[in-house]
Specification:
Layout: H1 14-35, H2 42-49, H3 53-56, H4 63-82, H5 92-108, H6 110-119, H7 125-151, H8 159-178, H9 180-183, H10 189-204
Helix pairs in contact: 1-2, 1-4, 4-5, 4-6, 4-7, 5-7, 5-8, 5-10, 6-8, 7-8, 8-10
Protein name: TetR family transcriptional regulator
GO molecular function: DNA-binding transcription factor activity; transcription cis-regulatory region binding
Keywords: DNA-binding
Length: about 210
């Protein structure tokens, strides 16, 4: 796993830091959705989080720190949801359940995902590199699930196509965040997940 970017805090209590930063993230996500990252101010973020600007600066140093925390929370949630499947047998059922967990997480956090992909360019260079590493880590988790399915005989997929297929899983799920306005008119999230998963698996049959 890539080494975390350190967000400095003058508070020493780790439990309190985690609690306050969760408040900051929730307030910032709502604000970024309404105003955009660039128009939102740290004073507005503090107000949305429910405390003073002075208290805010005890837990972050810059507005970019807040955006980083939003992005990092997404990847931590993805890792939490997908990690258990890495130890399961390489079956299509395991792959389907992992895809479901990931896509449903995007549904639950579609605002956060949209903010991340729209605003990552605003982060410092080293932080952008960290975000890209976490993104690759997410793709790699699906790549390993696909390799397990190949090893068990459930899929016939050449190694040269594994990363492409893993990226397709990730991108197809993100479509729910980016085009939610279009999909939700005709599909519930469960229908979207089923359709995307079966279309993906059907497409893989062409490589068997």
């Amino acid at each position: 796993m890539p080494k975390d970017i350190e967000v400095h805090s003058s508070v020493k209590d780790e439990t309190l830091i985690a609690m306050r930063r969760e408040q900051i993230i929730k307030g910032a996500v709502k604000l970024f959705k309404e105003k955009g990252f660039h128009k939102a101010t740290t004073r507005e973020i503090a107000k949305a989080a429910g405390f003073s600007i002075g208290t805010l600066y005890e837990y972050i140093r810059t507005k970019e720190d807040v955006l980083y925390l939003v992005c990092d929370r997404i990847f931590n949630e993805v890792t939490l949801k997908l990690s258990p499947y890495q130890n399961e047998e390489g079956t299509l059922d395991t792959l389907r359940r992992a895809i479901y967990e990931y896509y449903y997480l995007i549904h639950r956090m579609h605002i956060e995902f949209t903010i991340m992909y729209q605003e990552t360019k605003s982060l410092p260079k080293d932080t952008r590199a960290y975000i890209l590493d976490r993104e690759y880590e997410m793709v790699s988790m699906f790549a390993e699930l696909l390799r397990s399915c190949v090893a068990s005989g459930e899929l016939a997929l050449k190694e040269q196509y594994i990363l492409i297929a893993a990226n397709q899983i990730v991108v197809q799920g993100q479509a729910w965040a980016f085009r939610n306005w279009a999909y939700k008119k005709d599909y519930k999230i469960e229908q979207f997940i089923e359709a995307q998963t079966e279309l993906f698996l059907y497409g893989l049959k062409g490589f068997s």
